[in-house]
Each structure stands twice: as C-alpha cells, then as structure tokens.
Amino acid sequence: MRRTSEEENTIAPDGEPMDAQPQWRKDFPIDRSQDEFVARRDFTKFLVLTSAAFGVGQSWIVAKSLADGASERTVEAREIAGLNELEVGKSKIFHFPTAADPCVLVRTGENEFVAYSQLCTHLSCPIMPDPRDGQLHCPCHNGFFDVATGRATAGPPKRPLPKINLEVRNGLVFATGVELRTV
Ligand code: FES
After folding, report:
1. How far is the CA of 145 from the centre of ligand 1 (A)?
2. Total-model pTM
3. How far is the CA of 155 from the centre of ligand 1 (A)?
4. What is the spatial distance between Cα 81 and Cα 92, in angstroms, rounded to a whole number?
5. How confident is the prediction along the chain (183 residues), in pLDDT tens digits per residue?
6. Which atom, in ligand 1's list, is nearest to the CA of 143?
7. Cα separation of 121 and 126, whole Å?
8. Cβ(145)–Cβ(116) under 8 Å?
C-alpha cells in the first residue's frame, strides 16, 4: 500500500477508495485518521451493546425478584420428625426438598414448630440451630434471624430465610413446601 501526498492517506493496492474496500481493511486501517474513526465507531457500538446488556440484566433481576417475592415451591410432603421427638426450644437438622437442601426445625412451643432453610441469606453459611434467645445465629459474619419469623434481625443478612411449611399429622411433623421470601 502507498500513501497519497495530499491527504496522507494510504491507497489500497487495488486503488479503490476506502468505502469500496473489504470490511477487514476498514476494521484495521493503517491511517491514524481512519483508525480514530473506527475507534469512535467501535466505542459507540460498545456503549450501545453494553447499555443494552445492562438493561436486559436489570429487567431480568426485576422480573426474578417479582417472581420470587412470595413464591412457594410445592413439593412432595416428607416426614421430618416425630411430634414428641423434640423438647420445646430444641431443634433438628433435616434436608428438604432434596438431600442438598439443609434445613432446621425448631420446636418453639408445646404445639408450635417452625422450620427454615439452614443456609444464611448473606453468603450461605449454615445458621446454628441454637434458638435459646429467640434468634438463629450465623457464625460466619454474626448474622441473626428471628426464630419465630425467619426474618433477618442483625448483621449482614437482609433477606429472610426461606420458610419450610409444616403440617402435623398423626403425631408426625411433615415438611410440605418451601416458601421463598424477599421481605
Ligand atoms: S454468611 Fe451468614 S452472616 Fe454472612
């Protein structure tokens, strides 16, 4: 390729103007003026694509939060404890709805049980089943949840623990579903 004296622009081997050149030559020009043009054009393209990706991502997050807001996963009920297996104030770890989902069952009264996912809503450390002070404690970053509601009360966690719905039938406690909550 050679340069013209008046414009200081390089002439392509076929002598045709830049507009008539193949795309690869336009994308990788030799001359600074054209390179800046491509850089501006690519930067604009980058901005548009990044903005579009950001918008799509935000929309997905909003849609997911709305969907998760008060959703309940109905799954097959499973027996998780005998009615008199736990004394009031005691707790038990179980897995529901799958073996990979640790949960904690707490007997909060003579006829009252609550159960939550055992994974802290901050960074998924297991909360400790020690509800003596009416709290569930996450030792990782000192997060606390109200044992009666599963809502975050102190520390980094902001979202409540997923609640496990329970039923008592024939002297047995069953887990019947998972309630995902955002507030
Ligand atoms: S993981 Fe529970 S407080 Fe951070």
Report:
1. 11
2. 0.62
3. 8
4. 8
5. 555 555 567 778 888 887 888 887 777 777 776 666 656 667 677 778 877 777 676 666 555 555 554 556 668 899 999 999 999 989 999 999 999 999 999 999 988 999 999 999 999 999 987 756 789 999 999 999 999 999 999 999 999 999 999 999 999 999 999 999 888
6. 3
7. 10
8. yes
Answer for the pair 180, 162: CB distance below 8 angstroms, yes or no: yes
Ligand 1 centroid–CA 138 distance in Å is 6
Written in H, E and C, the secondary structure of 133-181 is HCEEEECCCCEEEECCCCCEEECCCCCCCCEEEEEEECCEEEEEEEECC
Domain residue spans of the chain: 2-68, 72-179
- Name the residue among 71, 66, 93, 89 with its Cα closest to residue 81: 93
The β-bridge partners of 133 are none
Query: Token match 């008060």: residue?
Result: 70
Domain 72-179 bears CATH identifier 2.102.10.10: yes
Ligand 1 atom closest to Cα of 142?
3
